[in-house]
Amino acid sequence: MSEDVSAVEKDLVAWVENWNEGEVEVAELKPETELTHSGLLDSMALVGLISYLEERSDREFDYSTFEPGDGVSIRGLVEHCLR
Fold first, then answer.
1. 34 CB-near residues (< 8 Å, 6+ apart)
2. Which of 36, 39, 26, 40 is nearest to 68 (CA)?
């Protein structure tokens, strides 16, 4: 992985904070925070975040192999996209 994972995660945390613009408490947002069940992102926002991740990393996100399990986190999205 040539991409700096921590820098990508930091950029995605900032994207989620910006998306919420004070509507949801994001003070404790970390890369491992679950995004959808917690209400931080709805499905449209999740697609936007993944699009930003693709643009940021210059890689395509493989939706067909992504299995969110118990939820979606920035760390899980980054690991899936950059592997």
1. 70, 71, 72, 73
2. 36
List the beta bridge partners of residue 34: 73
Structure confidence at residue 69 (pLDDT):
78
Q: How far is CA 76 from the centre of its chain?
A: 8
Q: Region 71-81: what's the mean pLDDT?
A: 93
pLDDT tens by residue, 9-55: 999 999 998 998 866 666 678 999 999 888 889 999 999 999 999 99
Burial of 40 (0-12, 13-18, 19+ CB in 10 A): buried
Any idea what the Cα angle at residue 31 is, between residues 27 and 33, rounded to 5°?
A: 65
Which amino acid is residue 69, in one-letter code? G
Contact 5, 82 (CB under 8 A): yes
